[in-house]
Design goal:
By secondary structure, the chain is an alpha+beta fold. The chain folds into two domains: 4-228, Rossmann fold (3-Layer(aba) Sandwich), CATH 3.40.50.300; 236-357, Nucleic acid-binding proteins (OB fold (Dihydrolipoamide Acetyltransferase, E2P)), CATH 2.40.50. Helices cover 23% and strands 37% of the residues. It is built from eight helices and 20 strands. The strands form four sheets. It has a six-stranded mixed sheet, with helices on both faces. A five-stranded mixed barrel has the order 11-12-13-20-14. A five-stranded antiparallel sheet has the order 15-19-16-17-18, with no helix packed on it. Helix 3 packs across helix 4 (136-149). It is globular and about 75 Å long. The chain binds adenosine-5'-triphosphate (ATP).
């Protein structure tokens, strides 16, 4: 188990600045996610940690050791890719044993370690099967066993579940967390799948165009996005433009919008709002409560334009003034509202209105 520090790392490929002065600290034993859209620099950063790339600028530390110039095989990391890079015609046990054979460990010791690793990933019964006789999920478990068996200081996972179907992805993501915690591993996990990150991460770094937009726990990232790009990337949200009307002593801010007045909380604690500042409200669809009537603040009234019923949830599209469509989601709906209803009301708690300074 080791902590990892990325200190002002930059990397350029030709005209592309893939990493732009990235600094992060990952605690020992943490399951840390790098999350962001395609091309934001996630894999490039992971490859720097593995040692496949050297930064143009900056340092990478494992604990207190500066590993910036240490070759990959001396960093004692294990990497798991989307394609599991297993040998299809070899047995499961042979695939898993490979790393230890390279280390010239004794045969009996290898057998014991292979058996333990396969047991951890619940594949002990398949040890003599060939890789090409396994399902995608089983292959993924073998790849994980092979990564774990070398007792890495740090496990690096690059979109490890992207080849699996939706049900297996769900199952495997909690398995990955269980195994990382059981082994006390520092793990860095790259994905563009926000649900994967929210569901199992200890902390998440959201990357955008080679920079870190925000670092936080899943709940911090989801409930308190610091910027429009983070709010828009993680989950669904409604953006409502407005201007600051008042800044209250309790830290709440009141904002005037074309859909009415809203009280909410600041996205960034450091921001000192000034009257008439231009802001954007971020309100999650599920933060609204469908109501009977309109109230003075924190509520919307519009025309119901669409209904999508998904059983546990009803999604409403509300046509507001000025061609704006707001999304409202109601959990466990008992009475459904149907498009065409002239007046649809919904309200939102100030805690669920995040005010982002433009
Ligand atoms: P994805 O989710 O699509 O894998 P990513 O966030 O992992 O994307 P990277 O693969 O890190 O993104 O790429 C970041 C940027 O650097 C992209 O613009 C990419 O085209 C560029 N890039 C990455 N590797 C190289 C390379 N070896 N040579 C040139 N450009 C590269």
């Amino acid at each position: 188990m080791v902590s990892i520090t990325i200190d002002n790392v930059s990397k350029r490929f030709g005209k592309t600045l893939a990493l732009d002065n990235i600094s992060l600290h990952i605690e020992a034993g943490e399951l840390f996610f790098l999350l962001g859209s395609s091309g934001c620099g996630k894999t490039t950063l992971l490859r720097h940690i593995a040692g496949f790339y050297a930064p143009d600028k900056g340092k990478i530390l494992f604990g207190k050791d500066d590993v910036t110039n240490t070759p990959p095989h001396k960093r004692n990391t294990a990497m798991m890719f989307q394609s599991y890079a297993l040998w299809p015609h070899m047995s499961v046990a042979k695939n898993v044993a490979f790393g230890l054979e390279e280390q010239r460990m004794q045969k009996q010791e290898i057998r014991n370690n292979v058996s333990e690793a396969l047991h951890t990933v619940k594949m002990a019964e398949c040890s003599e099967r060939k890789i090409n006789e396994l399902s995608g999920g089983q292959q993924q478990r073998v790849a994980l066993a092979r990564a774990l068996i070398v007792r890495p200081r740090c496990l690096l996972l690059d979109e490890p579940l992207s080849n699996l179907d939706a049900k297996l992805r769900l199952e495997m993501r909690s398995e990955i967390r269980r195994i990382c915690k059981e082994f006390g591993l520092t793990a860095i996990y790259v994905t563009h799948d926000q649900k994967e990150a929210l569901s199992i991460a200890d902390r998440i770094a959201v990357l955008d165009s080679g920079t870190v937009s925000q670092v936080g726990t899943p709940q911090e990232i989801y409930r308190s996005p610091r910027s429009k790009s983070v709010a828009g990337f993680i989950g669904e949200t409604n953006f409502v433009p407005g201007t600051v009307k008042a800044s209250n002593a309790d830290g709440r801010v009141e904002v005037t919008t074309r859909h009415g007045s809203f009280i909410g909380r600041k996205a960034s604690p450091a921001w000192e709002p000034v009257i008439a500042d231009s802001v954007t409200l971020s309100i999650r669809p599920e933060a609204f409560t469908v109501s009977e009537s309109n109230s003075e603040t924190n509520s919307i009234t519009g025309k119901l334009a669409s209904l999508t019923y998904l059983g546990e949830i009803a999604q409403y599209g509300i046509a507001m003034e000025g061609d704006t469509l707001l999304q409202v989601a109601e959990l466990n709906p008992s009475i459904l509202h149907h498009p065409g209803e002239v007046e649809f009301h919904a309200s939102v708690d100030p805690d669920d209105v995040v005010i982002i300074n433009n």
